[in-house]
Amino acid sequence: MDVIIYIQLSLLCTVNVFFTVVGVFLNTLVILCLLKSSQLQKKLCYFMLMVLSLFDLFAVVTNHPMLIIYSIVWMIEDYERLGTLYTYVDITDIFLGFSLLTLLVMNLDRYLAIVYPLFHRTSVTRRRLVVFLAIFLLFEVILAGISIDNLVISDGMATLIFATVVSPPLFFINYKLFIVARKISKRTAASSAGLRKPVCLKNISSCLLAVACLLCLYLPMSVYIALSIAEKSKLSPKVKISWLWTKTIIATNSTFNCLIFFWKNKMLRSEGLTVLKLLLGMCTKQ
Question: If you average pLDDT over residues 2-13, what whole number do you get?
Fold first, then answer.
């Protein structure tokens, strides 16, 4: 085996182990915070954040370990199992898709709450958000099912269809949120009493940052696509190693989501510290 490939596989194992531990810890912490706080549970945005963290937790415990296994199997040069593992790695992407769709519904909820507050208060409920999200998730499950082993369509075609359906509303909503954020910032800066940022602006900035992080982490996919076209084979070592790096980078989004919302949300941070103190107290007593 090429030494450079071996080094990269070792690095991939290290990175994926790190993000498995950190991702499980942070997503579990968010879920515990939201389950513990009755105050946070009343708000739709925090409910959707809990759903996002739940899907992110599933994504972490499936994607990163599968990438570790794939890297180790490649390192020991067990090439017979790599083909089967390739399919399993692609199947675990479904939870990353769930996370992305949940983020889309979260952005839609924030958009309606800020741009159409009256409609949001009277018409947007937890049940309706869950139903809306379930329709999106069903769409992805069907898309994933018909693309397994190129059953009906190829993986590339499934990805293209998914991106075509999800990207336009995601970009449109975030563009509108960005415009609203600029207007609020200018209004706040012009006001003599505007010493503190409005709560709605904080909510907008969290959504915008989460989507910006998502886009940045999905950009390396273009490198993989370019390499696969140049090499004319997905089995080329260069293409496979770029595929592994791409999958790893995309999977880290499930950890960065938690970091963004902890960073931007003071209430969530304070609840997190409370939960950590409780957990540490339980551990010291034992």
Answer: 89
